[in-house]
Structures are given as structure tokens and as C-alpha cells.
């Protein structure tokens, strides 16, 4: 912007200070938990409180894996992590594929019942997770899907598909239809035109839809806590509950586990974050 | 079979997998739960699934104070949290948008809370608001503002306040990101023109920026109102509906009724009343969104 109004120095400082405070509020609560993961328990209980960790330690991480000699009982964290990874990745990939097909249909074709179908997909998301967990529990136990990874994958697909359709529909609309028509005139089939022209252009949208789907599945708790029972399918968020089994919460162990849950989310979001803002605008508002 | 080969069938075939999944995982369970809401279904007595009791569950709910308190609390919770998050998110987006240097870094920091799952946010704030080791009380002690610990999660009012703080920490950045996206997409010419015409910053915001942002605001509201069920995870961890049911929301009450008291039929009846609430919120926001879009005119 060239014609920006010239600010007085005090205004600039006010802006900077406000921003600094806002960023602190956003970062400190999370960072505090991450810091706790590397503190010995004595420091957490210390009075007066110790603000900056004095004794950095990895014992909390070793502890939850059961690798410390004094605390013999660890948690099957690696099982939880593996379950979470399999369930989140599978459901994300399938939801993106199925959602992309749906989004493409909505963006490129006119057909009977289009509006009603679109609205039904939207409405299927108004059903809150907890409201769905009771009937799903009944059904899944009747057909033997309780405590299986497949059972959860199916559920997360259903949760993510409507949102993916919504986002990809917006993205395919952004791409002029002439492009694929031109490719078809040049001898491509509609299928080839899609993969060679439209798919690469919509990639950033698919990436942001993907990160949303993954984070939803990775972080979901309400349904997972009812539909899983053992290490065969328990996910990380459900595993976090293991720390409240006693009357007191094991804060350091819980924080270490929290760090393990955040890391994949953090890495993925940083990789895809460039597309994130674009994904939110186009998918959401342009309908 | 001829229909499936014709070109008209293509969109339906493309949508078929999505429809099948939604039918199987959302619609069928909903039909099952709709049926159970008319039975005395009890988890420990499976045969009660076929014991039809008509509207008894619904009639009992109408006279059930606990349920209506939870219902009202949910409406108030959604209203307060959504509006405050929207205002703070708008403020944050405008602030970050003013900064020209290092904006990308600020945007990344802004996304930090989005990476925490709601259940993690619950644990995190349960820890921060803990009366003996929590950061909040420690900081207040260090600043000499209090001389005995504040029972953040033990007092009913404070517990509700703490939950709203946690919810706002988690979701304000979602609003900020969505509105930031709107600000980035905004054409610069109208603002320049208004400034040349002598509008001050407030007038520019009121008459140009805000109307342009309205669709983004409603979209954010719609998405978030659909996701309020996430508050279940947080509330479950932070207070589990306590102390003495003072932070009970519909969702925590439902799970308690369904799983702990095994009254699935009753819980599903609650579910149906609460789904009506979600649908009402969605329709309200969707209407506002359509209005805002019309107001935007040619921009779409």
C-alpha cells in the first residue's frame, strides 16, 4: 500500500505492544505445557514456583514409555501413536478422494437434486460428535466394529467428507471450465483433462482440505473414547485419559504425552500452512 | 443399467461413494437413535431396545430441570463464546494486517492454538487453572494480587469462566485466520478512494472494511457453531460437568445419561432436542451469510 496514512510514533508503539501481548496470550498457555514436559516433577510442585525450568530432563518421556527403572508401569504409547497414525492417515486419504469426486461433481455438473444434496451434506455436519456416538455405539457393537481401527476410520471419513466436498467444490469453481474443455478439444478424455489440468491447479485446495481432515481425525476424542476399548484401536487423545485414572493427575507425564500429540500436528501444519489461508477463503465464501 | 452409462449419470456416480458413507455412518445411526428415543432402551438390558414407550422420554425431559439448565447453559455458552471469539479474532486480524514487517511469522504464531486438540486444551487449562500448581494462581501470587489460592475449577461461576477462557484461547485464532484471509482478499481501491474523500480510519472500517468482511464473519460463525460440540472434550476434562452440575452442557449430560446411567433411550431423546438447536444455529447463520453476500453484490 502506497498511500498508507503516516502514523505517529506513539501509535506505532501502541500497535506493537498490543500485538506483543496478544501473541503472548496465544503462545504462553501451550508453551507452558510443552515446558512442563521437560521438567522434573519436583519443579512443578515447587513453592515458590520455578518459572524457567532449571533441570531439563527427558525422564517424563521415558516414564510414559515405561523406560524408567523406578516407575515400572508405562503406557502403550507407541500402540496409541501407531493407531492414531493409521486411522488418521487412512481416513484422510479416503475422505479426500471421495470428497474430491463429490466436489468436482458439484462444481462442474448440473443435475437434478443438486441443491438438496449439497444441503444434506452440510446438515450431516450439524450432528455433533457426541450425539452420534450413542447410536454408533449401538450399531457398531451389533456388527462387531467396536474397538477396531476400521470402525473409527469409517466414522472419521463420514465426518470429513462433507467438509472436503465443501472446500474442493469452491476450489474447482475457481478453475475456469474452459481449461479442461480446451484440453478435451486437444484430444484428452475428460478423465485425462481432469488429472492433467484441473487436479494440479486444485492441489493447494486439496492440501488444505487434507490438513483439516487429518487434524480432525488426529484430535477427535468424543467418538473415539466411546468406540475404542483396548490398545487394538485406542488413539492418542483417548490415551491421554490414562493420566486421570488416579485422583491426582500426573502433570509431567500428561505434558510429555501432550507434546507427542502436538508434534505431528505441528509438522503438518507448518508444511501446509501456506495453503491454509487460501483454502479457507476460496472454499468457504465463494459458493 | 443404461442410465449408469449415460453422461447424465456421471455426477451421481461421482457422488455415490460420499452418499453411501454418509448414509451408513450418519443417517442409519440417526434412525436407530430416533427409534431408541421412543423406547426405554437401557444398556444393561439389551432387550429393552424393543420396548416401545411412545413419548415418555420426551415428556420426562420437558419436566426435567437438570436438562433445561444444561440446555440453557449450552445456548449461553455458545452465544458468549462465539461472539467474544469473533470480536477478538477480528481485532487480532486487523492488528496483524496493520503490520507490514514479519507478517508471515505473526500469522504462523497465530495458528499455534489451532494445533492443539480440544481434549489437550482441556488438560492444559485444567493444569493452568489448578489451584495449587497452576500458572494462573502462581502468577497472581507472584504479583501479590491474591493471598490465598483461587479455586478456579471448584467454584461454579469461576469454572464456567475458566471453560469460556479455554474455549476462547482455542478458537479465537480460527476466527482470526478466517478474517485475515478475508482482509487479504480485499480490494485496496475503495479504501484509497475513501481516504482521498476524507474519511477517517473509523469511517473506512465502518463503511468499507466491515461490510466486505461480513460474509467471512458469518462463514466463521457457521463453521464454529457446527463445531461447538468440541466443547464437550474440554468440559469433560476440565470439570466433567461439575462442581455439582454447574458446568453441565447438553453433551456432557447426554453422555452421562447414556453411558454412566445406561439410559440410552433418554439420552437419545436429549440428542434429538439438541440437534434441533444445532440446526437452528446453522440456519440462522446461513441466512445471515446469504444476506451479507447479496449486500456484497458483484464482488462474488
Automatic annotation (TrEMBL), chain A:
Chief location of this protein within or outside the cell: membrane
Keyword vocabulary terms for this entry: Cell membrane, Membrane, Transmembrane, Transmembrane helix, Transport
Segments forming domain ABC transmembrane type-1: 81-272
Gene Ontology CC, one term: plasma membrane
Location relative to the cell: Cell membrane
Single GO biological process annotation from the record: transmembrane transport
Membrane topology: Multi-pass membrane protein
InterPro entries reported for this sequence: BP-dep_ABC_trans_perm, MetI-like, MetI-like_sf
Transmembrane residue ranges: 13-38, 80-104, 116-138, 150-168, 251-272
Matches recorded under PANTHER family: INNER MEMBRANE ABC TRANSPORTER PERMEASE PROTEIN YCJP (PTHR32243:SF18), MALTOSE TRANSPORT SYSTEM PERMEASE-RELATED (PTHR32243)
Protein family membership: Belongs to the binding-protein-dependent transport system permease family.
Protein name stated in the entry: Maltose ABC transporter permease
UniProtKB/TrEMBL annotation, chain B:
Cellular localisation: Cell membrane
InterPro entries: MetI-like (IPR000515), MetI-like_sf (IPR035906)
Membrane topology: Multi-pass membrane protein
Any Gene Ontology biological process: transmembrane transport
Main location: membrane
Assigned GO CC terms: plasma membrane
Source organism per UniProt: Martelella endophytica
Pfam families named among the record's database cross-references: BPD_transp_1
Domain ABC transmembrane type-1: 71-285
Transmembrane regions: 12-35, 67-96, 108-129, 157-184, 204-223, 269-286
UniProt name for this protein: Sugar ABC transporter permease
Family: Belongs to the binding-protein-dependent transport system permease family.
Keywords: Cell membrane, Membrane, Transmembrane, Transmembrane helix, Transport
